[in-house]
Amino acid sequence: MEPTNTEAPDYFHKVVDCQWACPAHTPVPEYIRLIAQGRHADAYMVNWKSNVFPGILGRTCDRPCEPACRRGRVDEEPVAICRLKRVAADNKGDVAARMPTPPKKRIGKKIACIGAGPASMTVARDLAPLGYDVTVYDADAKSGGMIRSQIPRFRLPESVIDEEMGFITALGPRMRLGERVDSLAALLAQDYDAIFVGTGAPRGRDLDIPGRREAAANIHIGIEWLASVSFGHVESIGRRVVVLGGGNTAMDCCRTSRRLGGEEVKVVVRSGYEEMKASPWEKEDAQHEGIPILNFMVPKAFTHEDGKLTGVIFEKVAPVLDEQGRRRLEPTGEPDAHIECDDVLVAIGQENSFPWIERDIGLDFDRWNMPVVDETTFQSTHPRVFFGGDAAFGPKNIIWAVAHGHDAAISIDHACRGVDLRLRPPPGVAFSSQKMGIHEWSYDNDVSAEDRQKVPLLPLAEALDDVKAEVELGFDDPRSWAETQRCLNCDVQTVFTRTLCIECDACVDICPTDCITFTVNGEEEELRPRLKAPALNPAQDLYVSATLPTGRVAVKDEDVCLHCGLCAERCPTGAWDMQKTLIEMSHAGGCAR
């Protein structure tokens, strides 16, 4: 293998698995260490720079960072990264003075953002401080988009939304709320230099089966019903409720139903429990509130009597594999099941809807009626129109919308300055040795034996009595500190200096996970299995040195390294050093002007 190029930022970035997995590339270990030091405002600002909505995401993120967390490979549970983000947000104090201020002078470029959800507000956050004249349009009276309309208040208090949207509106974008855009052509006819479309996936999928029209009064589209609850238009539901669907929206629908009068609430899905799209903790929360999840049942018809819904008929199915090993669902032959109910909530997916975009303005759509959008630049086939969030590539989640907003803002900035849109600003990378002596480090390198902390919950009776009462209470100081100690400091990297190595193999002897090997070089496929501890995870790179005087190379398996620093402490010549690598993604304005 060739020696590892540690000058390339992607190598050490990839070692920080949580940051690499986060679409916005938040420096997770950095802010966790700040929380451990009681520096919550600093931790909040580290988050705010990358993910924009720390308080919101600390309660609602889909947490792609946590399955990637290295702690989950040496322990049963990853670090509670998302809940620690909330700790920073809840304890930050007043950070208004630390936010950017509106520029005193505009640069003469006008940008329109359609929709005031997470993607559009990220674009506004990035471009307004640079002097762009940003105008945000939204049909609703308040900003937030799906964050405000679809996430129940018992998961996300409105005060958190107001505060974090307020940090962005304080930067000076013109907020034209309560104003729906009905024609993209009309907006293009105005003097905007660029238009960003961040309208989300606002239409819930319906279920056209027998009885749908006859019982329509008691059959509701999930996301529309949640919005009606959020805005106070719906305050009750029937005693018996069936929720169709297995995603996070279905979990929000069933839990909201329990709070609005639903005594017998059931979730019914066509797939198995493990195949449900809902996050594992969302399913657990629903079951904690006494809501059963019934699997492998396909709705066939709504039953009704005198125009009133009486229930849903389901066909029972089971998974089978065809000759090619593909999984499909087939009827079991058992009698159909009839579940009686007073209301049904349909949460089987969301769709994009662009009736307001004319098809003759030079903006192409694909066969699924989605705009053709470049996955790097987020530019459509119309050079002045950009997309992001769910409007670009279909429904995902808030953190992806934020990442799209950052990337689209870079492209809009480049387009307005005549810079190649594919020229992306490189991330900022800072290396700093953590050495404070021969056997001391400036970071806490002890590996905690603590189990993952459990977040305290509001008592169930209180939670179900108030649709706005936040269920998760967050970590207190002892719990948050204990959880921070579970972080393995994966951004504090082992950096090897070949010219200092005397090949005594002391680092090999002391390594608690056997991740260091001195051996003859070879091709990767041949080298991996003959390391001291075979490196069986090809998704994690091997750290390979240049050839040493004996003809061997030093090889380290990044997959199982604990970043404990014992190799560097034991090395008699200082060939190993522990260096913190702070990697921060550049946003709009990151290139030289």
Topology:
Layout: H1 9-15, H2 17-21, H3 28-36, H4 40-51, H5 54-60, H6 65-68, H7 71-74, H8 81-90, E1 110-114, H9 118-127, E2 133-138, H10 146-149, H11 158-169, E3 174-177, H12 184-188, E4 194-197, E5 203-204, E6 219-221, H13 222-230, E7 240-244, H14 248-259, E8 264-268, H15 280-288, E9 293-294, E10 297-305, E11 308-321, E12 327-331, E13 337-340, E14 343-346, E15 350-351, E16 385-387, H16 390-393, H17 398-417, E17 428-433, H18 460-465, H19 477-484, E18 492-496, H20 506-510, E19 516-520, H21 524-527, E20 542-544, E21 552-557, H22 566-570, E22 576-584
Parallel strand pairs: 1-2, 1-4, 2-3, 4-16, 6-14, 7-8, 7-14, 8-9
Antiparallel strand pairs: 5-15, 10-11, 11-12, 11-13, 17-22, 18-22, 19-21, 20-21
Helix pairs in contact: 3-4, 3-8, 4-8, 5-8, 9-17, 13-14, 14-15
Which range best describes the helical content: under 10%, 10-25%, 25-40%, 40-55%, 55-70% or over 70%? 25-40%
Q: What's the tally of helices?
A: 22
- Rg of Cα set: 27 Å
**Biggest β-sheet description:** 5 strands, parallel
Spatial shape: globular
Going across the major beta sheet, what is the strand order? 3-2-1-4-16
Tell me the distance between the termini. Answer: 40 Å
Structural class: alpha/beta
What percentage of the residues does DSSP assign to strands (E)?
15-25%
Estimate the mean pLDDT confidence.
Answer: 94
| Number of beta-strand segments | 22
List low-pLDDT spans.
none
